[in-house]
Amino acid sequence: MTYNNENIFARIIKGEADCVKILENDYILSFMDVMPQTPGHTLVIPKYGTENIFDLPEEYFIHLMDAKQKIAKAIKKAYAPTGVMIMQLNGKEAGQTVFHLHFHIIPRKEGLNYKFHSSEIADFKDLRREAEKIKKWL
Ligand code: 5GP
């Protein structure tokens, strides 16, 4: 499949679609997942048009890893989860639904209800409140 420059995450990078931002630099953008699997569910994407991990230029990896660690640490402070899941899917058979490379960072703990894919779109007001909890620790 060829990369579609009009996918929703490409449109977010271009500023054509809204998101609740967590972190941004020349290489990456991080924002709240609009259908959170748990409160605090955050996404990190490269500012490079690729569907999956296989085609990403090397210079992006360090920035993605750095952002994931920073955000995972902030999520630990914000939610005191006993686990933090970092997940990335390649291809529809792996469960991928948005075809711009992205990493999920999801706080987990006993009793915190988790769904592989949520279908409930969150209110941006609620996402902004959760984003503030995380950003406080970045
Ligand atoms: P995937 O299944 O491809 O790994 O995950 C795609 C994720 O993107 C899902 O968790 C879904 O909730 C999230 N998502 C889909 N559309 C949007 C959107 O327009 N904005 C944001 N912030 N997240 C989205």
List segments where confidence is low: pLDDT < 50 over at least 5 consecutive residues: none
- Which outline best applies? globular
Judged by helices, strands and strand pairing, the structural class is alpha+beta
Rg calculated over all Cα atoms:
14 Å
Order of helices and strands: HEEEHEEH
Strand order of the largest sheet: 1-2-3-5-4
Beta fraction? 15-25%
The residue fraction in helices comes out at 25-40%
State the distance separating the first and last CA atoms. 36 Å
What is the CATH architecture assignment? 2-Layer Sandwich
- Number of β-strand runs: 5
The figure for the number of domains is 1
Ions, cofactors, ligands: which are bound?
guanosine-5'-monophosphate
Assembly level: single chain
Q: What can be said about the biggest beta sheet?
A: 5 strands, antiparallel
CATH homologous superfamily assignment: HIT-like
What can you tell me about this protein's structure?
It is a single chain. With about 140 residues, the chain is of the alpha+beta class. It has one domain: 2-Layer Sandwich (HIT family, subunit A). It has helices at about 10-15, 60-80, 125-135, and strands spanning about 20-25, 30, 40-45, 85, 105-110. The protein has a five-stranded antiparallel sheet. The longest helix is centred in the middle third of the chain and has 21 residues, at about 60-80. The radius of gyration is 14 Å and the shape is globular. The structure holds guanosine-5'-monophosphate. Guanosine-5'-monophosphate (5GP) binds near residues 32, 97 and 117.
